């Protein structure tokens, strides 16, 4: 491709709409442009990177024995009624009526459609196993789209669905997909981690997420520094003993103290001169079943919403509204505690505070806390569970070693769905004994467009993008310093053509512009290797080979350039 | 691919939902399945054919200098307001609200989005020309989706948009695209014709359609048997002289005759013993501007709606409702005529009836017609225009030779848009003199999914699909007659692997089924060549090479099979 013809509008300034670096760089590098909130157009450079990821995904899905299909993006309400998700799925499911006033939605995922397809075609165990995938545009009406492709409304996803006779066969499919995913993200050149994950609203009973490691990631992931254990902190089990060191303490007398204007737990600790871990935070919550819950965790811990939902068996859990807090505690928000509540509520405390003695809680009264609170004597009917986030102070739940917590961007997700959808929708098969049984399903997603952006979030420097070689839109850029110099231009042209003939995806910067502008653009768009044809050619017959990642420059005599080109063929 | 693993559910019975042969065959061959009205899932075989067409389209678009982008399918109302199409586009434009109650639509086409993208990036004549395309799923909420992919609601389309400094540059782009389209449909192996076409609602001032010739096509196309002229009959100009042979006749006395129950023009001709061409059909029509129009054509001609709209300068034209007909004519539908109407209406007659004398018209009275009607004496204020379809009796408007009329399926369309969208949306550039001018645009569409089905509509026989080689989902099927015979199975396996190693897209029928079933499936799905490994292998060491199109069988000794395989590599 000749740069002079390429639709590649780079930007010097950082667009105000972008918050994170990958989003800024994709805009500046002319990869994407915003159409409306959460809706992006892919320009040629962005689409080329997207296609490289797609190609790797497709090849590995085929290698794993999956077959490609393409399902409609517009889906009828009836199928979603069958699965129960027409009601249950939130507003991310964009629902609308067609011209005949029939209800449809834009597919955010395709469990219903694929289950419907398979139930019509699969009759017998002989038709199984089956693994069908598609690479397709999905739509989720996010309440607050942001970060470009990271949390867009329209996005490109690879979704696969497996169909098996039993759990054992599903298990084989699941790990087969797991391995395919590892190959995919390795081939994309990404630093990633597969972690145990929550199965969330989609249902199912085993799940792993594939996380691209990046400081700005929305997810926190815990992993063992010794064994292979790794999990999203949403899910990571805490196996710390409940030993607080307090067990020997006698119960002191409960005492109310004034804490004027002191709400934050750190401030309470400071004000009362009590260590953080002896202050118990009480959060007033409401479930979709209208239950009011007071959840208690230590001052140095964080409540884990996913764990709480599981303990409560509810689908939705939110912080209670101000009016509810005032009704239940008799005080404004910020002073809730488990002692002296005005209504019967569900009390749940984290395991780690079970052995605490003489701890501090909110007094259910403005500007007041209670000291020396103790279980049984002061608080009854509490159940203890693992309801907090794991911390680096906790041991690995598998081997007890030290863990570390990092941030990541979720780019893939594998689920064991079991028979959730097949039972709801009557997708059955006849087993070897002629008995009708529900098909056992799995589902496997990759955010293709998100992977492109996550790669940039992980791989950039102050000059711009540093594309991992396998997903770079071009393998090589050939820059002619001065295109008006016929000799330089002709040499550049020759290198460009030689590269193309070797199957190297090459961009030829033939623009009549200052070299500085051309170098800056090349660095911004992150092409792994640049060959610069400049005055050295006339001096000693050599060209510069610049490596974007290391920023090292080699001087290569023209006659040895073929070896360099031969080493560049990533794209095939 | 091994057939035993392939998700390829063929059907013996013809599904009741299908009307035309290609739709039936695509369902029977397990290429597609219906999800809801106008919404289809592509199964692996269907998707493979679709991808082959996509690949040809993409290669030729690149060769023509176009660049690939990917635009959102969900589009904001604001852009469509700018172009004026939010109001003007009919119910095919599916409009809906997102969770924040903002108006959006599902993209049926992308003029607005691409014009918006380009107006933000293009500043100067130096940024032009530009030609951007995408291959993407579109949605049009057809009132009556039918014929499978032929008139679906969701479909895969290649749409391209060009941007130029002036009409001359647009003209070069236009013919460049025209030639690319010819190469695309040639490479797909299709019998097609490029014809002049109406520009319709999309606007613009020059247009050609690419038609796949097929008896069941929805369009009629006229073409000269001598010169290169070809046009959609919607548009084909009639240049017949108005000479009817009646010019010498004297005006006879007008006479009302009883024609009880005789409505159809053929019946009137028969009943009154008057030749068809001396009966004038009068159609009562209504425009979107609420005008009532009586259009007159000869009994052996057909009214052309597109021409009528142009004559009237209206966007919509429909047959008048019963109440309107009764109000205007004083009679029920079927007896309208230009003489004695009860209201002033617009009278338009086709050029061919200008010289008629003593013709027959409806009497505006139940069961009655008028004989010996004549212009001026009986009918005043008529304007004459070309408002009928061309017939094979008319001469070529270019060279006067004989024309022929065939049916076709529209698979491609090229338009000169001019400045319609760029002016409406302010997409301008600075020319060499620093003057701001609107960008001159073209647009170019190919119905990718429709092309697959049109290919089948054109290429099939009583046994099933006969795929043109370049777009067949597989190049070759290797059928082992009896897979339980180890020698046959091993030989089949060897041929399969040899074919794959040569880059031949090969399907290996390794199913443990009766040979008859396997042959029938192979014929149904239309793979161009079948190699059958059967008992001949044991007798004389040969295999059968069966050509699907000609149904010829060659016996080839195993040692010469390599030559056959070498000749089969269509797919690269």
From TrEMBL, chains A, B:
GO terms for cellular component: cytosol. Its main location: cytoplasm. It is found in: Cytoplasm. Residues 33-468 form the Aminoacyl-transfer RNA synthetases class-II family profile domain. Its EC number is 6.1.1.15. Transmembrane segments: none annotated. GO terms for biological process: prolyl-tRNA aminoacylation. GO terms for molecular function: aminoacyl-tRNA deacylase activity; ATP binding; proline-tRNA ligase activity. It comes from the Bacteria. Keywords: Aminoacyl-tRNA synthetase, ATP-binding, Cytoplasm, Ligase, Nucleotide-binding, Protein biosynthesis. It is an enzyme of class 6 (ligase). It holds the Pfam family tRNA-synt_2b. The keyword Protein biosynthesis applies. It catalyses: tRNA(Pro) + L-proline + ATP = L-prolyl-tRNA(Pro) + AMP + diphosphate. Belongs to the class-II aminoacyl-tRNA synthetase family. ProS type 1 subfamily. Homodimer. Catalyzes the attachment of proline to tRNA(Pro) in a two-step reaction: proline is first activated by ATP to form Pro-AMP and then transferred to the acceptor end of tRNA(Pro). As ProRS can inadvertently accommodate and process non-cognate amino acids such as alanine and cysteine, to avoid such errors it has two additional distinct editing activities against alanine. One activity is designated as 'pretransfer' editing and involves the tRNA(Pro)-independent hydrolysis of activated Ala-AMP. Consists of three domains: the N-terminal catalytic domain, the editing domain and the C-terminal anticodon-binding domain. This is Proline--tRNA ligase. It comes from Dissulfuribacter thermophilus.
């Amino acid at each position: 491709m000749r740069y002079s013809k390429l639709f590649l509008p780079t930007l010097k300034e950082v667009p105000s709409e972008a918050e994170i670096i990958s989003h800024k760089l994709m805009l500046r590098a002319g990869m994407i442009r915003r159409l409306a909130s959460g809706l992006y157009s892919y320009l040629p450079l962005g689409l080329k990177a997207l296609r490289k990821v797609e190609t790797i995904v497709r090849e590995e899905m085929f290698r794993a024995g999956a077959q490609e299909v393409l399902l409609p993006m517009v889906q009828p309400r009836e199928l979603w009624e069958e699965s129960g998700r027409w009601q249950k799925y939130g507003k991310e499911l964009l629902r609308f009526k067609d011209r005949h006033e029939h209800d449809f939605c834009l597919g955010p995922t395709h469990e219903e459609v694929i289950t419907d397809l398979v139930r019509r075609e699969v009759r017998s165990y002989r038709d199984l196993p089956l693994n069908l995938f598609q690479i397709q545009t999905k739509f989720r009406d996010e309440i607050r789209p942001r970060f470009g492709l990271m949390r867009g409304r329209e996005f490109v996803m690879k979704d696969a669905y497996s169909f098996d006779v039993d759990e054992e066969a599903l298990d084989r499919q699941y790990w087969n997909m797991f391995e395919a995913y590892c190959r995919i993200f390795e081939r994309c050149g990404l630093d990633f981690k597969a972690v145990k994950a929550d199965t969330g609203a989609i249902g199912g009973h085993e799940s792993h997420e594939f996380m691209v490691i990046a400081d700005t990631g929305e997810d926190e992931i815990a992993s063992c520094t010794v064994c292979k254990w790794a999990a999203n902190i949403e899910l990571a089990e805490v196996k710390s003993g409940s030993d607080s060191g307090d067990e020997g303490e006698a119960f002191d007398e409960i005492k109310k103290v004034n804490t004027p204007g002191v709400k934050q737990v750190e401030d309470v600790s400071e004000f009362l001169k009590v260590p953080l871990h002896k202050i118990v935070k009480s959060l007033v919550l409401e479930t979709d079943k209208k239950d009011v819950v007071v959840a208690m965790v230590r001052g140095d811990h964080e409540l884990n919403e996913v764990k709480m939902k599981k303990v409560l068996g509810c689908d939705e859990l939110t912080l209670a509204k101000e009016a509810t807090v005032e009704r239940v505690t008799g005080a404004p928000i910020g002073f809730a505690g488990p002692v002296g509540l005005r209504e019967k509520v569900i009390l749940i405390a984290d395991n780690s505070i079970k052995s605490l003695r003489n701890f501090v809680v909110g007094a259910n009264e403005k500007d007041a806390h209670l000291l020396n609170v103790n279980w049984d004597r002061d608080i009854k009917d509490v159940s203890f569970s693992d309801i907090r986030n794991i911390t680096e102070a906790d041991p690995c739940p598998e081997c007890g070693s030290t863990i570390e917590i990092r941030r990541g961007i979720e780019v893939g997700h594998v689920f064991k769905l079991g028979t959730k959808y097949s039972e709801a929708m009557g997708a059955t098969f006849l087993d070897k004994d002629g008995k009708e049984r529900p098909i056992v399903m799995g589902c496997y997603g990759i955010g293709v467009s998100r992977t492109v952006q996550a790669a940039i979030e992980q791989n950039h420097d102050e000059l711009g993008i540093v594309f991992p070689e396998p997903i770079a839109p071009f393998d090589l850029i050939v820059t002619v310093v001065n295109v008006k110099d016929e000799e330089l231009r002709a040499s550049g042209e020759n290198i460009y053509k030689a590269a193309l003939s070797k199957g190297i995806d090459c961009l030829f910067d033939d623009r009549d512009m200052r070299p500085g502008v051309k170098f800056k653009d090349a660095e911004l768009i992150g092409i792994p290797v640049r060959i610069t044809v400049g005055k050295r050619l006339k001096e000693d017959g050599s060209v510069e080979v610049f490596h974007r990642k290391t920023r090292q420059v080699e001087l290569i005599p023209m006659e040895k350039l073929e070896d360099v080109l031969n080493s560049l063929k990533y794209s095939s």
